């Protein structure tokens, strides 16, 4: 078919990355404070090249700053410099640190509770998601750690909350997640903080941290950073030199491809982990089940080479006391031969024990499931990524890992104070090799998805009276990353041109459509075709952070005569449960569960996440024992 390029508008060319200057590394004494120097004596002696280049901007200025640098570049220390600058100017200042995922927040909280809490006497808190508790934590906290979702709930009512207004430093880490599935919430929270600062005319410093981005200039402008304070380094300027090998497999069937990759994983561990001087190697696999399979495969290959314990780096007697602490029987067996494995179902106690053994090089190999890349606190000399696809139950197909998952995995190859270099082996389908060669060695492009899910954010702003008419809704959008990207990549956002009129018409249409949907859902009323006023359903939805279609469903379906079966059906059909994960062959287990619950679902479609939600809610209420994976899904449902 012929394709017309008549209306094609190419995106703006990306600016060149920031040059890494050849500077003398700054010693920690550059902090000019003996007490602050003590914070880093056990960690580093001098700042790395990237930290040295941005040191004065972070530690001696109060300007907004964006830094795009590869994983393992020490961006967290850059954030710490900004916090130290805040406390230097205002000992009672408040800082909010945002990370996109809870495990990342937990890791930073552990580190900062020791550094800023115990050593500096500051109150470091991590938000819980319970609004009443979080308001108390916000009141007393000086370093507040949160996910975008939790901060969104607290910051929505910033006009009434003095403690939100008193924040002097806002650090947004891993900003590349703005281009991901939950990116719109992250985008809105950052935009709101800038908007709040200008409305109150109070100084708020914003720090953005990310992997290198091809459109970093737009991110910097969105955050209010000047061009001099937008640092976007090339991915190859990692302080620890990284050697990446990409190996392709010409097998499309996933299970067969994983079988074929097993031997290559073993050979990669031997080649890059070393034999005479073994170094720790981390292997990432797609699923929980595959962690155990790969760990056993590695030991089988080692046994075939007549060296069954080649991955065990200490005497068995030294390891035995730690193995006795482990609850998982298979894990005990693999650990005794020097291979550990971790996935989401492994208990906290077992995970910490395995990580400790890996950290001290008692075992050489650790196999982890894909999502553990954000939970693991450990680093290795080398990383092997075994395949780059996972099964998406929502779409009933195999999908590629998000690129930032792979960047996070690669970032685990980084023992900065021990090794002189790091290794990574990426195993993928042949057809994907060119893609990874491009995006692993070039800055990452990100786009906004806020235009697809504006309704709940608009509703929240209408309830708090930040938006009181359609013009204010348009003005509100001008603070977003979406607005910055619309003119730079117009076709991506369905704009037909880049003139002011094209942009104005598109924003007006977006606002009209969104507010009309909210009016139809009875969340708000539009008066005289211009002003907007919140209604009861909208107020309830904003207060409890409920999706606007969910509150409409509840309003239309719930009556005084609704029975328990009806309640379960209505609740489980909420939009919030549309993304509950579905796994291969799970329908068999769900079918069996349907026979055990009190309110059986006739003609159930077990590939529907809402049906699964209904079953798991009933299982929870009936205290039915569930397999580990279903139990984690059940916990997620109950938390929502």
TrEMBL record:
CDD domains: DEXHc_Brr2_2, SF2_C_Ski2. Transmembrane segments: none annotated. Gene3D superfamilies: P-loop containing nucleotide triphosphate hydrolases, Sec63 N-terminal domain-like domain, Winged helix-like DNA-binding domain superfamily/Winged helix DNA-binding domain. Residues 56-231 form the Helicase ATP-binding domain. Keywords: ATP-binding, Helicase, Hydrolase, Nucleotide-binding, Ribonucleoprotein. Pfam families: DEAD, Sec63, WHD_SNRNP200. GO terms for cellular component: nucleus; ribonucleoprotein complex. PROSITE patterns: HELICASE_ATP_BIND_1. One of its GO terms (molecular function) is nucleic acid binding. InterPro entries: DEAD/DEAH_box_helicase_dom (IPR011545), Hel308_SKI2-like (IPR050474), Helicase_ATP-bd (IPR014001), P-loop_NTPase (IPR027417), Sec63-dom (IPR004179), WH-like_DNA-bd_sf (IPR036388), WH_DNA-bd_sf (IPR036390), WH_MER3 (IPR057842). It comes from the Eukaryota. This is U5 small nuclear ribonucleoprotein helicase. It comes from Trichinella pseudospiralis. The gene is Snrnp200.
